[in-house]
Design brief:
FAD/NAD(P)-binding domain; single chain; binds flavin-adenine dinucleotide; five-stranded parallel sheet; alpha/beta; 20 strands; globular; binds NADP nicotinamide-adenine-dinucleotide phosphate; 17 helices
């Protein structure tokens, strides 16, 4: 080990939006930081998810960094919701602008992180055989960075290529003239299916659970709107910081109750928010996320839209969701349901005819065989804990994080875990993360973590660690808030239900502004709930 690698203040894992800002802010505070990244470049989500149709579902003028005024003024988005290549180009621009790459080692997967109690330092090893020592470790490893590749019988026998949306080949895929199967109808499937259908000779979609989707209403970015926002960007950012979801302040949410609204008002609000597009639909009424009865009105509104869009009534019936709107992240599409009106596109309902597996020439269900040339898994991710559980993380007395989280993740503020001093997670379970616009959530976490590290060092202290009582209280609070909503009500990745054997726990915390206020108060009280020691 060289002297340099032993002198790190902070070792950061991951070079997505979280890791990049972590490095920048650590440098600003005079900390020596190094980032390790498994991919060959920056971008994280936007580096790996290159499938056709991939784009953000939070407007780009809001789904972007706000820490640097010149950056947010100068960067120009081309569409309301930028496509993946543009978001990746933005990440690359940020890396160049702030000279980040010189402290990022790419193609470097972290295998383990062990805390040495005597030295009060972490020792981190990589797949390339390196060992790094650092006082603090920050896991910026992403909530949706480990693809869920289902174990499907016969996958090894299938003669054609198998792709996962979250590991799409850099050179792209040409489906021209091909018979294609897509498995999965979450956001990734719903975004990619219309575009794959445009190319493929035939497309068969295998659906396990029908999903709610609202048209994104994507369009070229209006230069007048852009100019108006950029005139006082700070104002929009500040107003978004008051929103439970961290975005959307330009479209005030209706706090009224669906249950108290007249049928006409109900229809008008739903239609208005449908036209706004995508996730903004959730702002139609204040109680949609709280009451199953209220939510059912929204669900029926969406079902009616599907019935209107899909011409074949049998296909439309299979596409009708029976879950609460939003309990799985609401999808934002561009022509998803209409795709099923095309003669070369068909839908297989896996609830009617369960999947048996793949065979040499295609996909097999209990009702028969479907010959295809290529299979696309749009089957999602081992979310929120997946990346952390794949690293051998050991804290005090060699305790493994995987053991500490055997019954589901437990954290204080989604930032730290009892028994793992000086280890931080960016947008970890127990923080608002995936229920928000993730850019401001990431920035808020990075600010808290970098300040905490700098303050701890400035105070001449060596360690910072969550206290048991504070963690227990926080976990209880996160559950209480989640359980008062419709969010844990279905089998989503929010509760780990997409991964066989994963404990069922609602992992994110609902309530962005309240969370940020709590973090500010914790910091102002000398990092209340954390123990800091010499
Ligand atoms: P990531 O971008 O996931 O980066 C984590 C990085 O850590 C990855 O590059 C990974 O390779 C690396 N890593 C992980 N483990 C290791 C290891 N052991 N060793 C080395 N490196 C490692 N959020 C929104 O708010 N709005 C959106 O519109 C939106 N759209 C999305 C679309 C898709 C297709 C997906 C999958 C997610 C989307 N998200 C969206 C969530 C998105 O993940 C976040 O917004 C954000 O990009 C996360 O940044 P991050 O840096 O925290 O994590
Ligand atoms: P996802 O929401 O988890 O959807 C995965 C799909 O695959 C579901 O339809 C699931 O069915 C199905 N599936 C999983 N395992 C299966 C199996 N063994 N057999 C058959 N079907 C199976 O994953 P995702 O679509 O990749 O999206 C994940 C998250 O990433 C999103 O919720 C969102 O936060 C983010 N994202 C955002 C965008 C965007 O619009 N900006 C785009 C993509 C992703 P079940 O429902 O039955 O489990």
């Amino acid at each position: 080990m060289s002297e340099a690698t032993n002198q790190l203040d902070v070792l950061v894992v991951g070079a997505g939006f979280g890791g990049m800002y972590m490095l920048h802010r650590a440098r600003q505070l005079g900390l020596r930081a190094q980032v390790l990244e498994a991919g060959s470049d920056v971008g994280g989500t936007w580096y790996w998810n290159r499938y056709p149709g991939a784009r953000c579902d939070v407007e780009s003028l809001e789904y972007s960094y706000q820490f640097d005024e010149a950056l947010q003024q100068e960067w120009q988005w081309s569409e309301r919701y930028a496509p993946q290549p543009e978001i990746l180009a933005y990440c690359q621009h940020v890396a160049e602008r702030f000279d980040l790459r010189r402290d990022i080692e790419f193609n470097t997967r972290v295998l383990s992180a062990h805390f040495d109690e005597a030295a009060k330092r972490w020792s981190v090893t990589t797949e390339r055989g390196q060992t790094f020592q650092a006082q603090f470790v920050v896991m910026a490893t992403g909530c949706l960075s480990v693809p869920n590749v289902p174990e499907i019988d016969g996958a090894e026998r299938f003669k054609g290529p198998i792709y996962h949306t979250g590991r799409w080949p850099k050179e792209g895929v040409d489906f021209t003239g091909k018979r294609v199967a897509v498995l999965g109808t979450g956001s990734s499937g719903i975004q990619s299916i219309p575009l794959i259908a445009q190319q493929a000779k035939s497309l068969t979609v295998f659906q396990r659970t029908p999903n709610h989707s609202v048209p994104a209403q994507n369009k070229p970015l209006d230069p007048t709107l852009e100019a108006a926002i950029k005139k006082n960007y700070a104002d929009l950012r500040a107003r978004n910081a008051q929103e439970t979801i961290g975005f959307g302040a330009r479209h005030p949410s209706n706090q009224g109750s669906v249950l108290e609204a007249s049928p006409e008002e109900r229809e008008a609000q739903f239609e208005y928010h449908w036209q706004l597009g995508g996730l903004l639909f959730m702002r139609a009424f204040g109680d949609m996320g709280l009451s199953a009865e209220a939510n059912e009105y929204a669900a029926e509104f969406i079902r009616n839209k599907i019935r209107q869009k899909v011409k074949d009534p049998a296909t439309a019936a299979k596409l009708l969701p029976d879950t609460a709107v939003g309990c799985k992240r609401l999808c934002a599409d561009s022509g998803y349901f209409e795709t099923f009106n095309q003669p070369h596109v068909s839908l297989v309902d896996l609830q009617e005819t369960p999947l048996k597996g793949l065979y040499e020439d295609g996909v097999e269900t209990e009702s028969g065989r479907f010959e295809v040339d290529a299979v696309v898994f749009a089957t999602g991710f081992d979310a929120m804990t997946g990346a952390l559980s794949r690293i051998d993380i050991r804290g005090r007395a060699g305790q493994k994080l995987s053991d500490a989280w055997a019954e589901g993740p437990k954290t204080y503020l989604g930032l730290q875990v009892v028994g793992f001093p000086n280890l931080f997670t960016v947008t970890g379970p127990g923080s608002p993360s995936v229920l928000t616009n993730m850019l401001p959530s990431i920035e808020q976490h990075v600010r808290f973590i970098t300040d905490a590290i700098a303050d701890t060092k400035a105070a001449g202290l060596s360690t910072m660690e969550a206290q048991q009582g504070a963690q227990d209280a926080w976990v209880g609070h996160v559950n209480e808030v989640g359980n008062a909503t419709i969010y844990p009500s279905c089998n989503s990745w929010y509760v780990g239900a997409n991964i066989p054997g994963k404990p069922r726990v609602f992992m994110p915390y609902l309530g962005f502004p309240a969370y940020c206020e709590k973090c500010d108060a914790v910091k102002a009280a000398g990092y209340e709930g954390f123990e800091r020691a010499a």
